[in-house]
Design goal:
This protein has 507 residues and is an alpha/beta fold. The protein folds into 4 domains: 123 residues, Response regulator (Rossmann fold), CATH 3.40.50.2300; 153 residues, Alpha-Beta Plaits (2-Layer Sandwich), CATH 3.30.70; 96 residues, no CATH class; 103 residues, Orthogonal Bundle (Arc Repressor Mutant, subunit A), CATH 1.10.10.60. Helix content is 55%, strand content 12%. It has 23 helices and 10 strands. The protein has a 5-stranded parallel beta sheet with strand order 2-1-3-4-5, with helices on both faces. The longest helix has 21 residues.
Length: 507
């Protein structure tokens, strides 16, 4: 694996070089550079597999270098090493495709783990050949970057489907988040019904990696009609579209489908401010005037005091106060909300370290940033806090405070979790409403239904990984996940490790 190191401080640059040489004889540092401009020229010429770079450098920063390379289609796997832990730096790095984000000073174990992760990703890349066939496959291929949206595809679409390069499309992203697996089928049927009533031609794509659906409409009456129709139907179907975030934008030609999809996603987190039943419309969303927010330092300090004193009840009270501060009906900039969440959770983690307690969620900085960066709804943001503080609370299943209804629910989860049993199905069997069951479960268990069944499945998966020799996809199926890649992602989100890594470390 060929590596280029870009670092302006010679002492650190040579230190990284020595670290890399110690880790693996197959890692070859083919060049070093003292600034981003020199690094850019080296990388462009040598085409290394991996770049290890600092952020702040003279001539050209590490971020500017990576951005310029990306614009030119040159993007080796990148590891960023920085003295800066700010959310904005890390978020920018992740969006540029950075694989690992390490904070100085870097230990040999951290560098070894980062390089090992990058090497594993490089070895797992599979190159899928271009596949033309159904319209769904074509659009999926364009979105996933597996089909080249060039002149040949233009001719093919025009000849077979009458879709021209200037055909106008309306794209609607339907983001389900961590509820994707349990609700994708029901939500897709609802969306297809709504679109069928619009009079437009349409298709609905499943994007499990993005935990989303993507509806693409064309041959429609007008943009305004489509937007009004969908917004009205969303409100009429608020129950079946509960916890779903949606955004819509217009584009022209299949070549712009991917970029338009990315634009919608970049604004979709306004759902956490407006609520799930509001359709985020681009470019109208760009005109929103956000209110100024003052970070609630008093709540953070009370939370830290509660953690220091190991008062779990008081700590969770401050978590609720923090949530209420940001989701109170005011139009805060979503990015500011995410930065505040990152700061609040980081403060909790540092406090736990100070008192020699285990970190509540056992996740890395990069995983935490990715999770917050990806969130689109207030529900997801609240789930992040719940997940982080979950380690401070012991589950109470057979407690006197747990009523018969919740005990029956838990029993059914334990019995039917492999079959993907849902809250609605359990509520039906108990002859109560899903809303009532959800509220009771949250109240008595201290976490929501989805988080409980997810944790139970992952707990079972841990047992299977350690105690047997089942393949990862077999473990996924055994605990109720039909998509092994989705299972691996959820497993890593919960444990901080991939399934194979977990098995290796526990044996």
């Amino acid at each position: 694996m060929n590596i280029v190191i870009v670092e302006d401080e010679i002492r650190i640059r040579e230190g990284i070089l020595r670290l890399v040489e110690k880790i693996n004889d197959d890692y070859h540092v083919v060049a070093t550079a003292e600034n981003g401009l020199e690094g850019y020229n080296c990388i462009k010429e040598l085409k290394p597999d991996v770049v290890i770079t600092d952020i702040m450098m003279a001539e050209m920063s590490g971020m500017e270098m990576l951005s310029k390379l990306k614009e030119e289609g040159i993007m080796p796997s990148a590891i960023v090493i920085s003295a800066y832990s700010e959310f904005s730096y890390a978020q920018t790095a992740i969006r540029l495709g950075v694989k690992e984000y390490l904070i100085k000073p870097v230990t040999i174990n951290e560098m070894k783990k980062a390089l090992t992760n990058v090497e594993a990703e490089l070895s797992e890349q599979d190159y899928v050949s271009e596949a033309l066939g159904s319209l769904n496959n074509i659009f999926l291929g364009v979105i996933n970057g597996m089909v080249d949206a060039g002149e040949k595809l233009d001719i093919y679409l025009n000849n077979k489907y009458g879709i021209k390069n200037e055909t106008e499309f309306m794209e609607m992203t339907i983001y389900l988040g961590y509820y994707y697996e349990e609700s994708v089928s029901k939500v897709k049927k609802t969306i297809e019904k709504i679109l069928a009533e619009s009079g437009a031609d349409y298709l609905v794509l499943e994007l499990p990696t993005d935990m989303s659906l993507l509806a693409i409409m064309y041959n429609y009456e007008s943009e305004d009609f489509i937007e009004r129709h969908i917004q009205e139907k969303i409100r009429q179907n608020s129950v079946s579209l509960h916890r779903v975030c949606m955004g819509i934008a217009r584009t022209e030609g299949i070549r712009n489908i991917k970029s338009s999809y990315d634009v919608i996603n970049s604004y979709l987190d306004w759902n956490m401010i407006f609520g799930d039943d509001v359709l985020i419309m681009y470019p109208k969303v760009t005109k929103i005037f956000a209110e100024k927010d003052v970070y609630p330092l008093d709540i953070e300090n009370k939370m830290k005091a509660a953690v220091y004193s190991k008062n779990k009840k008081a700590a969770l009270t401050e978590v609720k106060n923090f949530e209420e501060h940001y989701f109170n009906g005011k139009l805060y900039e979503p990015r500011n909300v995410k930065e505040a969440y990152c700061r609040f959770i980081w403060s909790a983690l540092e406090t736990c370290k100070d008192i020699n307690e285990n970190e509540p969620a056992q996740i890395t900085q990069k995983q935490l940033i990715e999770r917050i960066d990806r969130a689109k709804s207030s529900g997801e943001m609240k789930d992040i806090l719940e997940m982080m503080f979950e380690g401070m609370i012991k589950e109470k299943v057979e407690d006197d405070n747990v009523g018969l209804t919740v005990k029956k629910t838990i029993k059914m989860i334990h019995e039917y979790y492999k079959d993907g049993i849902t809250l609605d199905e359990i509520a039906g069997r108990l002859n109560i409403t899903p809303e009532y069951l959800s509220a009771q479960f949250q109240k008595e268990m201290g976490l929501n239904f989805s988080a409980y069944i997810r944790n139970y499945r992952i707990g079972k998966a841990k047992q299977l990984l350690v105690s047997g020799n089942m393949k990862v996809y077999e473990v996924a199926e055994e605990v109720g996940y039909q998509d092994s890649k989705y299972f691996s992602r959820v497993f890593r989100q919960v444990t901080g490790q991939k399934p194979d890594e977990y098995r290796k470390n526990k044996r």
